[in-house]
Amino acid sequence: YQVHGRGSPQAAPYMQYVQALLTDRARVDIDATYRSVPSEEAQLEFSTFSTAVASMNNFKVSSYPLWDPYWKMVAATPGTNGMVHLPFAATPIGIFYNQQLPVPAEAGLKLTPCLMAGIMSGRITKWDDPIFEQNPNNFPVSGTNIWPGLQQPITVFAYPGASGPTYTLSMWMSGCAGGWTSSPVVSISDGQWKASQVAGFNPRTSFTDPTTGQVKTIMDADDMAAAIASTPHSIGYLPVWGASPGDSLVEAQVVNAKGNYLNSTRADLTATVLDLWNSRKIPANISDNWWPITNTSGSGIDGGWPLTQLLYIYSYKNLTAFGSAGPLAKALFSFVLGQEGQALLPDSGLFPLPPSMQVSMLDAMAQNVQPRAGLPAWAFESKSAVGIAGMSLLTFSAARQGYTTTAITELKAQLASISRASQSRGWSRVRVAGPAGGGVGVLVSSMLNDLRERALSRISASYEEVRGDAAAAMHHLLPMGQVDLLVSDQPLRNSAWEDLAGYAANPTTVLQVPFLVRPVALMVRAPARITLRMSPCTLAKVLSGDVQTWDHADVRNDNPGVSLPSTPLRIFAVGGESSGNTRALRNYLAAACPSIPTDTFNTELKTNDPKDNTLVNPGMPRNVEAVALDPEALINDLAAAPEFSGIALVSLATGANAKGLSEVALPITAGSSQFITPSQTTKKEYSALLDGVNGALDLPNAQDDWSEFNIVQAPENRARVYPLVRLDYIIIPSELTSLGSSGSAVTAVAEYLVHPTAQASLTTVAEDPWACPLSSLRATSAKATFGAMVTLSPDAIKWAILDGRSVDAATQAPQSFGSSEHTILMSQVTHTTVITQQAEAVVQLAAASGGLSTGGVASYQDITDAAIVALTAQVRDAKDRADKAWSIAVAAIVLGLLIGMSGLIMACWVAARTHNMPAVGKQLGGSSDRYHAFDDRANLPTSTVTLGDVPLADRRV
Q1: Where does the chain cross the membrane (predicted)?
Q2: Is the pLDDT of residue 110 over 50?
């Protein structure tokens, strides 16, 4: 039996491993190969059915859909019944440049489809082109133009033939009306660049290899990366998979369909593909001509990546001509599109399909791809299967392995063992991620810093901001993801929860546990001593578009006697529609004003658009990312704008009132004449909210879907409590055995975040004064949830979180922690605690002295906060330097010990050899013969020297 394929080099490591794995699992001999060739060549070969049959090429893999003329050729060829596209993996395409800009990388080059189309078509030829000056996104925060003085010409690199990266880039650039209108790939027939270019312009498709001095054609991602790295002032594009950009290579940020700028490291590719699939930008019918209808650049989520490349298997629908290879090829497709095959993709640097798309592709393939009638089909057997079915000649049994896969499995086990040993003696690493903005990141980062100080063994718990809504960010928790635990300003959306629950062969149960309560404030710049009021239905009408100005009758009715202007009334939200604050507002209005359904809200909440000068003063320094993702930037812009410029929807934070903004008051309950602002409710009352809701509604279980939970649905339990609140969540898989010993550290971080001491020490003026901790009842319940519902690897060392000094009840002596260095001592005083306590004492003293007004105290708090942040940064920087020095010292000691031990062993060995040589020398006839025999060990006389009881010459090794 044999099955052979050719195609994209990106798929080669994965396809070759899968073929080796299936060959090992088969009882009969299988000859399976995969040859790497450019996608262009694979398409050309696939278009000629007779050639494919004669050369036994059973399938092809390409990084873009089959070219339209080729699809028509295959469809018209007798014996094929047409062909199918089987997408099985995804990878991002990034744009990289080698141009030194006088700004930090995060403020560097930002590209729109039109800007990139101008570069790739030859209309933009120099880095100081005026078009860069016209793009406000290419200005640093200071507002200084970075482009004058950069007169260097732009060197543009491209692939020489049709390719998936070029197809993907062109699809994105075609979003520029009139800027990129030709065929989205290099013409296959003549190899020339044909895409709205300036006459005579062609990108460079080769470079001088600095290691060899030879001219080299750009054939793959590594070639493209080397070309850009070795050529100053250049730009190019490549799959992020497999590339190793040098230090001089920086990735540009590109704009997606939602208007967000991000690079590939900030993108969520699996969530992007899911959105494209759900919106039918990826066709559902695998038998269709995908060339004119596939669009992977239009994802509508915040974290959607506009340069998403899919990898496709091409197969003829009728495999009769391939004989016995037909059923084998179909079995290979089934494995690749199945759960086990998809789970193997991350090991090759590829992203798997979303579960719903994977299941659909697998079913469609089974119905459309048909081998010769009468030939038996191959079957699959799991490793745990019982019986004799696996003995069948045509069964792939996971219980059967060859030497190669066994060796790989053993090497992985050894690596895991080394990792566990390293963890028990050194660092435990946990990666935490959460949404940008919303206040979650600052607080959690501080809590993780204190966790490192309280841990007896060394733990690295890092926090990364994810640019995207919670539904997109959740997919980082999947096995191919980059983080271990997620914190979020809202629960998982239903679709994301269902996808996670059905992800792998064993569904991933995801636990969602609230760990903070936050009031969400509506901040406005209004005249002094005026507290504006808003009834729920007035707010709902603002979102539905029925109320558009401040002097609308409904707004005036809520604020009798207040003079209101006729200017537009708009609500600005960090993160727009996808943020947790927006979800909290919708939940509040759904409960407090049910007469206006939330699905009538046809006015999207705006982010602070830098082009909108009604809010941002003309000429004011602007940065679209900082403004759109940072609550403080939104507050600062609103404070600098004229009165009644808009309402900022933000989680309540310190300093806003001191900047001249005031809180909008909401009625305590729907229809009540009593209004309340968020700061008029105490933190203790906010913390008790979940206890009241639990008694009235019953909270969902941690493993359940929380997307419909609405904390505002029980207003009768909230006397004198501000009603617009949100919950922050910890989201963690319940199955962490795949993480080995690191799983226990992940659980420890989750338990630490809900620990009362950790929460209380940081919800202060220094960090986030209105991030309200859970009540002791809810905190205890949350910690018990993690302990009882998270499954760890059997060899994982459990972490312990101790409130104080552990004392033996019998001896009253301090208990030994035994072998468990994996302990977190909550009694350990951290740098943050000391600094915060000192700052609070200063503020309280200033307030008690009577020398400061209320506004003065608030301003003094702002000054103190800034000092705290700076001092904390200095302390932690010094601690980091000390940690590095400690690590270097330990490494030096270990190296010295190893060298010393090696010398000692060598000395002992020499002494032993010298001690044994006289007897041998005597037999050989004197001291000169002794030393000769010692040096010429390969020619020892076999008659006198034996190994065991067998002469050395007769011993076979």
Answers
A1: 885-912
A2: yes
Report how far residue 463's alpha carbon sits from residue 451's, in angstroms, rounded to the nearest whole number. Answer: 13
Question: Which one-letter amino acid corresponds to residue 113?
Answer: P
Strands 647-651 and 31-36, bridge-based pairing? unpaired
| Pair type for strands 250-251 and 234-239 | unpaired
CATH topology of 2-87+315-409 equal to that of 518-682?
yes
Parallel/antiparallel/unpaired status of strands 83-98 and 308-316: antiparallel
Q: Which of 663, 642, 665, 667 is nearest to 653 (CA)?
A: 663
CB-based contacts of 367: which residues, under 8 Å, 6+ apart?
A: none
Q: Which residue has the tokens 């399909």?
A: 353
pLDDT score for 830: 67
State the DSSP H helix or E strand holding residue 391, giving kind and residue range, or none if neither.
none
Handedness of CA 450, 453, 455, 457 (dihedral sign): positive
Task: Tell me how many degrees the CA angle 512-516-519 measures, rounded to the nearest 5.
Answer: 125
Contact criterion met (CB below 8 Å) for 252 and 109: yes
What totals of helices (H) and strands (E) does the chain contain, helices first?
29, 29
The phi and psi torsions of 612 (rounded to 5 degrees) equal -95, 95
CATH of domain 90-278: 3.40.190.10
Cα distance between residue 493 and residue 294, in whole Å: 26
Q: CA of 73: how far to CAs of 183, 186, 312, 319, in Å?
A: 19, 20, 18, 17
d(CA 635, CA 632): 5
**φ/ψ of residue 568, rounded to 5:** -60, 145
pLDDT given for residue 327 in this prediction: 96
> Token match 């000169």: residue?
928
Q: Which of 761, 765, 773 is nearest to 685 (CA)?
A: 773
What is the residue type of 8?
A: S
Measured CA to CA, the distance from residue 68 to residue 522 in angstroms comes to: 54
How far apart (Å, rounded) are the C-alpha atoms in residues 575 and 607? 6
- Which pLDDT tens digit goes with each residue over 782-828? 888 888 888 888 777 778 888 754 444 444 444 444 345 677 777 66
Phi, psi of 679 (to 5 degrees): -80, -5
Tokens found for residue 514 = 């609230």
Angle at CA of residue 438, ends 606 and 754, nearest 5°: 155
Three-state SS at 82 = coil
The CATH number of the structural domain formed by 2-87+315-409 is 3.40.190.10
Q: Which of 397, 401, 393, 402 is nearest to 385 (CA)?
A: 397
According to DSSP, the residues that pair with 92 across neighbouring strands are 308
**Among 152-156, 268-272, 474-478, 581-585, where is mean pLDDT lowest?**
474-478
SS3 of residue 105 by DSSP: helix
Record the tokens describing residue 691, joined without a space. 């206890």
pLDDT for residue 94? 92
Amino acid letter, 739: L
CATH 3.30.70.100 fits 518-682, yes or no: no
User: CB atoms < 10 A from the CB of 519, how many?
Assistant: 24
Residues 6+ apart with CB under 8 A from 546: none
Instruction: Round to whole Å and give the CA distance between 470 and 433.
Output: 11
Higher-scoring residue by pLDDT: 884, 19: 19
Residues whose CB is less than 8 angstroms from the CB of residue 791 and which lie 6 or more positions away in sequence, other chains included: 734, 735, 736, 737
Q: φ, ψ for residue 777 (rounded to 5)?
A: -65, -50
User: 0.85 exceeded by the pTM?
Assistant: no
pLDDT, position 813 = 41
Per-residue pLDDT at 330 exceeds 60: yes
pLDDT higher than 90, residue 78: yes
- pLDDT tier for residue 309 given thresholds of 50, 70 and 90: very high
Residue pair 240/93 in contact (Cβ under 8 Å)? The answer is yes
Sheet holding 253-255, edge to edge: 110-111, 253-255, 261-262
- What pLDDT score does 544 carry? 83
Which is nearest to 540 in space by CA: 589, 494, 504, 595? 589
Domains of the chain by residue range? 2-87+315-409, 90-278, 518-682, 898-954
